[in-house]
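1st attempt posting a full record on here, be nice pls
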Amino acid sequence: MANLKDIRDRIKSIKSIQQVTGAMKMVAAAKMRKAQERMEQARPYSNRLSELIKELLPDVDRNLLLLLETRKKSRYTYVIITSDRGLAGSFNTNVLKKAQKEVDELGKENVDLICIGKKARDHFRSREYNIISSHLDFWNDLSFDHAIHFGKEIVNRFVTSEADHIQVVYNEFVSVATQTVISEQLLPLEYNQEEQKDEEKFFEPSKDEIVLNLIPRHLNVQLWKYLLESYASEQAARMLAMENATTNAQDMIRDLTLEFNKARQTAITMEILDIVGGAEALK
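the predicted structure (as tokens):
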């Protein structure tokens, strides 16, 4: 059995860790609330814009815009969104596993990676995947300008035929306790014929003009949505992980306190036995 000083030091150390995890939980909770508000504000606009684009695509000549061009897929670009920091449970691991599985199925030699977040960059760089760019240390100052900046780089790869297909892998915020990994095609823009509605609508200006103006905005808004969803998911995952860590620390403190009391009781009993033994010897 460990001596009293060792147990006391362990309890003190775990209490210090518990204070840190508790503080990190509070910080993550505050960041998550703000991120969730921004995400919920962006969702309706993003979803409605996507629906409108899908309604217009069947009636638009795909030669109108390079972004509408469908090609034989031979070169892929994957945009992988993770965080810069850990201590967020399985938040990064789930994204990285899904992305790596899909890339390996296509053949790593056929895929270029754009890594948003340090965890994605470190993971794929250590495994010698083809990373063409990475974006780090911007999450605390996240703004729509970042979506525009990333969007220019991503769209340019498709326009210049450096990529025939662009896929985004990110975490979608479902609830505080649940984040779902999504792999979504960004380019080329496609639609499901079965989802199209038969109702007749009149558009002013023409459908072609609307598409020409909306598609660049749509791509930026989609990237903004991916970033907001991922950031809110990261903070929710970190808050939950820190809450679990705080609870586990409390359990360990309780167990160690019990062990400490047992050790102290044993030490007191041994001292009493020594005193009684000494008194008996004097008789």
